[in-house]
């Protein structure tokens, strides 16, 4: 420990602290902009590039950036001297002098960290008249928009992409006034190996990186009398959507979400969780086949599209190891346009399937042509949790006052196993629940597999079923996934199955969720809520879902059989 004095207040803090951390302890708020502490991910963006956190340190001629300056014993710090405040304001004014002022129509209006800071510092005039950059806006991908004009060079995206996700897409290019952050040769994003994981979008403080905004397409479909519009919601939405309406983190809003969707005018409100239950039936069968028939092991889960894109780009020699199952929302989209359309006698060409996803990569996944069946896209439009929140507000719906309503039948029926898909460890736990019953032929009494739960980026567990040890690996965050893949490549891996999710925390931590990156507490509250929702379900094992059983009996035939394979499986290409 060392003693430091912050604004006349002496405190003791650990030796390795920075001035910024010490000031938090002293109850003093130093404004920051580029700084981002992702504690649980062991990542700190501390480029000290924005110069907003400048403070005075006694006996030092120059101001010091609080985020990157370590404390030492006897240090005397003044955080809000006239000189520090002036320097801080000047840094922000310089940023603003080269920043578009179209806040009113900006995607981050009222949710922009630069805007909030300008307000906090009471900036009412900009003393510097800067030249404005006019960079081309990159909307080449289905998933994200890159508007370099709004970039403040904080480099958070670079850190997230390179250090957490190890994708290496974004880095600083050019020099001086021409500096930008982008892919090598400033290629359009669609021509890069970007996985669309959205980690960069999640950490961007401004609108330099945002999701592609597809709300207008949904309104258009809803207002077209010729269209039959079906919506489905991912497991992770129900534990995060409430945050956009001022509710506490970890609030479960399943019933209100369903009400809101009905009021928005969707013809059917279905649950991606039904698709997840079907995924488990298929994936668990596939794993049993691989184990019993000497197939390729480990089997990797394949429901996370950013992860699938990562393996295709970065480990093309390993594309035969993921399960061939399509992801739950694509499976549900397929079933809506085949099984449900036939049942209801609706022309699938008239059906529009909208997926509400916590994820940006799902937008690009839905556009993959190899997933279509009989020339129909399975999913037509994907909007994020944030976009759904925007629609509810635009429609004037008072979310907090909505009654709780139930999903529609039959594709709204789901089990607790499918709810936990939304958190890291959940997909594999759901698979283990089903495998356990299949391998023992007995009812599973204890459905909670605590050994598979947690928030550490890399985990493993051995689950014994009928005397057979199943060795399971779990990774979330693509950097962690890379480690497991390198072990597989070098023959060091001895797992039977591995679950991988691209986003830290799993889908609850997705790039399309209410902004949360850098706040581990929020992801943990959402995770607790997911497990609570699972406990609240009457049926908690996927193959016990009665509507899933009916689907196989009346339509698909055998799980992992010919028809199921044709409709519900795909292949991956380098
Ligand atoms: Fe997920 Fe999914 S669980 S990827 O994390 O598998 O996005 O929530 O919808 O499809 O079910 C996301 C979340 C899903 C899918 C499901 C899977
Ligand atoms: Fe990197 Fe993911 Fe952003 Fe693509 S979406 S640039 S892979 S962080």
Automatic annotation (TrEMBL):
Keywords: 4Fe-4S, Iron, Iron-sulfur, Metal-binding, Repeat. It holds the Pfam family Fer2_4. CDD domains: fer2. The keyword Metal-binding applies. GO terms for molecular function: 4 iron, 4 sulfur cluster binding; ferredoxin hydrogenase activity; iron ion binding. Residues 83-122 form the 4Fe-4S His(Cys)3-ligated-type domain. Residues 186-214 form the 4Fe-4S ferredoxin-type domain. Residues 1-83 form the 2Fe-2S ferredoxin-type domain. PANTHER family: NITRATE, FORMATE, IRON DEHYDROGENASE. NCBIfam families: FeFe_hydrog_A (TIGR02512), FeFe_hydrog_A6 (NF040763). This is NAD(P)-dependent iron-only hydrogenase catalytic subunit. It comes from Alkaliphilus peptidifermentans DSM 18978.
């Amino acid at each position: 420990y060392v003693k430091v004095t912050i604004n006349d207040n002496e405190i003791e803090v650990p030796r390795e602290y920075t001035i910024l951390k010490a000031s938090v302890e002293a109850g003093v708020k130093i404004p920051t902009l580029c700084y981002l502490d992702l504690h649980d991910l062991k990542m700190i963006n501390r480029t000290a590039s924005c110069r907003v956190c400048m403070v005075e340190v006694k006996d030092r001629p120059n101001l010091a950036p609080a985020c990157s300056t370590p404390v030492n014993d006897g240090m005397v710090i003044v955080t809000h001297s006239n000189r520090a405040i002036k320097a801080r304001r000047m840094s922000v004014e310089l940023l603003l002098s080269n920043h578009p002022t179209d806040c009113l129509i900006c995607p981050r209006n009222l949710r922009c960290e630069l805007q909030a800071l300008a307000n906090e510092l009471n900036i009412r005039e900009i003393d510097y008249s800067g030249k404005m950059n006019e960079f081309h806006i990159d909307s080449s991908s289905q998933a994200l928009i890159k508007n370099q004009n709004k970039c403040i060079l904080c480099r958070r995206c670079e850190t997230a992409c390179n250090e957490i996700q190890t994708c290496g897409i974004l880095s600083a290019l050019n020099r001086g006034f021409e500096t930008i952050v982008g892919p090598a040769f400033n290629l359009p994003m669609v021509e890069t190996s970007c996985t669309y994981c959205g980690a960069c979008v999640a950490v961007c403080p401004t609108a330099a990186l945002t999701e592609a905004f597809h709300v207008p397409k949904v309104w258009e479909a809803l207002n077209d009398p010729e269209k039959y519009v079906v919506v489905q919601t991912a497991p992770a939405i129900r534990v995060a959507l409430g945050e956009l309406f001022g509710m506490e983190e970890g609030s479960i809003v399943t019933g209100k979400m369903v009400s809101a969707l009905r009021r928005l005018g969707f013809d059917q409100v279905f649950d991606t969780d039904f698709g997840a239950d079907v995924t488990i039936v298929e994936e668990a069968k596939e794993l049993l086949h691989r184990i019993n028939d000497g197939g390729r092991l480990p089997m990797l889960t394949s429901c996370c599209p950013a992860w699938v894109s990562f393996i295709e780009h970065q480990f093309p020699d390993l594309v035969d190891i993921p399960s061939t199952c399509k992801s739950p929302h694509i499976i549900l989209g397929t079933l809506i346009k085949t099984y449900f359309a036939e049942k209801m006698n609706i022309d699938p060409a008239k059906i529009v399937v909208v997926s509400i996803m916590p994820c940006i990569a799902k937008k690009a996944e839905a556009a993959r042509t190899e997933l279509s069946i009989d020339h129909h896209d399975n999913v037509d439009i994907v909007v994020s949790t944030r976009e759904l929140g925007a629609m509810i507000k635009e429609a004037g719906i008072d979310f907090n006052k909505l009654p709780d309503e139930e999903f529609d039948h039959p594709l709204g029926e789901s089990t607790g196993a499918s709810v936990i898909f939304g958190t890291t460890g959940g997909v594999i736990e759901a698979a283990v629940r089903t495998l356990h019953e299949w391998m023992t032929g007995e009812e599973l009494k204890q459905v909670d597999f605590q050994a598979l739960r947690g928030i550490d980026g890399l985990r493993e567990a051995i689950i014994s079923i009928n005397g057979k040890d199943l060795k399971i690996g779990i990774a979330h965050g693509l950097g962690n996934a890379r480690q497991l893949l390198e072990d597989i490549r070098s023959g060091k891996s001895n797992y039977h199955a591995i679950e991988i999710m691209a986003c830290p925390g799993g889908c609850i931590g997705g790039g399309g969720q209410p902004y949360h990156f850098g706040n581990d507490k929020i992801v943990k509250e959402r995770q607790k809520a997911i497990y609570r929702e699972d406990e609240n379900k009457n049926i908690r094992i996927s193959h016990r879902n009665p509507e899933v059983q009916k689907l196989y009996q009346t339509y698909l035939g055998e799980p992992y059989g010919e028809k199921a394979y044709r409709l519900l499986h795909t292949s991956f290409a380098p």
